[in-house]
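Appendix B, record 7
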Amino acid sequence: MRAAIHQPHYFPWLGYFDKMAKADLFVFMDEVQLEDRSYMLRNRFLRKDGELMYLSITASKKGYREKKYNEIQTIDNAHWQRKHLAYLRDLYSGSPFRDEILEHIMPVFTKNYQFLFDAARDSIFLCMDLLDIHTETITQSSVNWRRNCGDEKNADARRSNDVLAICQAVGATAYMTGAGASLRFLNAEQFAESNIPVIVQSYQCPRYPQMFSKEFIPNISALDLLFNCGIEESRRIFWENVKKGCEFDGIEG
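Structure tokens (predicted):
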């Protein structure tokens, strides 16, 4: 059973969903600390001039370093929800798929959230449905895991130990990681000794027709693909790309 573990992001990029689609189980890290300038509460979108901008959930930063991610509260929901909805409605006004996508993701802009985690997770679930992803998801807080003994003063070692302990607790036979920052702290030898090999995600952003940009801008929110291409075509593009990235050890195409 291939497991993947990641913090929740707000309307994540396609690479996030690619990793999710290639895993059998996806664990949301909801007990970690909120990181500064993190995708855990925002994501990148295009403007009409082709430049990038962020849409961010407004969250309380009071004492956030002493809180778990699932304890961080949202504030002024009506303001950020109205702002995000108006932005997307205007930005993609020329898209024939705008209304069907907006209707599907509307719950994120209408629910009265108390916690940041719930808003971010809802944005992920809605995109999973739009992209036809059926991977099982659970939360870190629902897993009965115990931190492995190790060098508690070394942040990277502690993070690697935590990921390994969660993999062991859920019965993973392999762990899928992205090719980014996690490779820096993961102790692959320790995973191998525990009979949980590390699989590195193979991913390249698929190209698709994109409004407002002379050159294709990759790795922004997955909503851009959906608004530009609609549900059916987005699923085709997404899953063809997933299959292309399954040609490496431990993954079958």
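Remarks on this record: The beta strands are 2-6, 25-28, 42-46, 52-56, 136-139, 174-177, 198-200. The mean pLDDT is 92.
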